[in-house]
Amino acid sequence: MRIAIVGGGYVGLVSGACLAAHGHDIVIVESDLGKVQSINQGNCPIFEAGLPELLAKTVGKTLKATDTIEDAVTISDATFIAVGTPFDGTSIDLTQIEQAAKDIGRALKKTSAYHLVVVKSTVVPGTTDNTVASLLEQTSGKKLGTDFGLGMNPEFLREGTAVEDFMTPDRIVLGGNDARAQNKLTQIYDCFADTDKVRVNNTTAEMIKYASNSLLATLISFSNEIGNLCSELPDTDVTSVLAGVCLDKRLSPIMPNGERVTPDITSYLAAGCGFGGSCFPKDVNALRKFSQQQGVKPSVLDAVINTNKLQPEQFVALLTDSMPELQGKTVAVLGLAFKPGTDDTRESPAIAVIQQLLKNDAQVVVYDPIVTTLPSEVPSSSNISIAKNLNEATKQADAILLVTAWDEFLALADVLNAQKRQPLVVDGRRVLTAGDFQHYRGIGLGPQTQNNGPDDDKSNKPDSNVASAA
Ligand SMILES: NC(=O)c1ccc[n+]([C@@H]2O[C@H](COP(=O)([O-])OP(=O)(O)OC[C@H]3O[C@@H](n4cnc5c(N)ncnc54)[C@H](O)[C@@H]3O)[C@@H](O)[C@H]2O)c1
């Protein structure tokens, strides 16, 4: 099918490249000319595993980009909207969605064939059937249901594994305002024959996306709250606690052959320094506000956000516990991306961590294997610099804060051994082996006072003498 995708960001470009690889004719409409040129030259404008290879296979064949929406819509059978839907502090900001809907409507005026418009962006329930539908009708002069159809197809890909997630989805949610729209949308996804399809109305489709992200964010905040409690409990480690929780057969079933399956969902039951990214914070906030507007008190969602907001502070407190005075101290921050595998720093916990360190007059050195410029939210200061590699970042450091779980940081112990230095290491993701460091603090690791017995895992033992690093 010929498909236009408005918005060539993480979702639009990955969806476009994957659908193009499946044989659809895709044209991406992107307002950023730099991205348009980059895509048409086969250069990937974002860091995403597998995407450069997909672009190499499809660009110039079944995939191209343009900044001219009218041409793209009029030659297509369907148009997806994959533009950004940021949270403006009070509610979801629909500026990009509204602009896209108006532009598509004006283009539809020039066509006579039935056209399917599909909202792929994450939008609060009712947006597709109200805001988008009325803008399309107003600007096209056409009738929804007769001249064009309207679908809602939320996206579940995760940055870092976006191509794999799109190509092997858990489920595909197919929302539609009527059977004709839904059948056309289903046809687009015929190439995913083995995937479970959920055929629902548009509002339910919108709600499924928010409920899914809110559940995952809830698991993370729950784990962080348990972790914060473990931090206060002598001889307790949140990693052992949550590992024990996950052995519940309802979380990790035992198959008839006796083998235990560890579903991906258990990876969200882990304590850390908070969730970030372009989805969880804004989506939970948007659902929370939407819920309030409907007169439903979002107590759980409020708690999820509040716990998450405090988590970078909890993390920095592990440092200041051991090193109360940061003025004159050099602190290395490892990681800027909100998670490994992406160059996205939107709402990254690293931002809040750095802001707090600067407020405490620390000298901050930042290193991320992929992100080489500071996010705009970090105040410009002569007290912050970016290092080129792990060794450069840590060689002067009095303390090292691991914020993003990049694989490269697993070499930290070797790097410090080569430097013959043992600064304080504070592990915000619990990916390091405590026993490899003389001075180690980890999120969710309580003070160690005793040997816990023969099965005690020495690798998770913190340094009882950690205060000496201060
Ligand atoms: N990033 C994710 O992991 C992810 C996952 C699932 C769902 N989503 C949702 O998908 C949507 C898009 O997210 P994203 O991360 O791809 O955003 P993004 O900011 O990376 O990309 C949006 C793109 O749309 C372009 N754009 C905006 N208005 C335009 C217009 N009128 N015409 C042409 N181009 C326009 C922007 O220039 C930008 O390149 C959001 O609603 C988001 O919540 C994101």
Strand content: 5-15%
Structural class: alpha/beta
How are the strands of the largest sheet arranged?
3-2-1-4-5-6-7-8
Q: How helix-rich are the residues, as a percent range?
A: 25-40%
Number of strands: 14
Average of pLDDT: 94
Rg, please? 24 Å
**Sheet of most strands:** 8 strands, mixed
The best one-word shape is globular
Q: Write the CATH fold name of the largest domain.
A: Rossmann fold
User: Kindly, what is the distance between the CA atoms of the first and last residues, rounded to a whole number of angstroms?
Assistant: 63 Å
Under the CATH scheme, the architecture of the largest domain is 3-Layer(aba) Sandwich
Explained architecture:
The chain is of the alpha/beta class and 470 residues long. It has two domains: 199 residues, NAD(P)-binding Rossmann-like Domain (Rossmann fold, 3-Layer(aba) Sandwich); 256 residues, NAD(P)-binding Rossmann-like Domain (Rossmann fold, 3-Layer(aba) Sandwich), CATH 3.40.50. It is built from 15 helices and 14 strands. Strands 3-2-1-4-5-6-7-8 form an eight-stranded mixed beta sheet, sandwiched between helices. Strand 9, helix 13 and strand 10 form a beta-alpha-beta unit. Helix 1 packs across helix 3 and helix 9 runs parallel beside helix 12. The longest helix is centred in the middle third of the chain and has 31 residues. The chain is globular, with a radius of gyration of 24 Å. The C terminus is likely disordered. It binds nicotinamide-adenine-dinucleotide. Nicotinamide-adenine-dinucleotide binds next to helix 1 and helix 5.
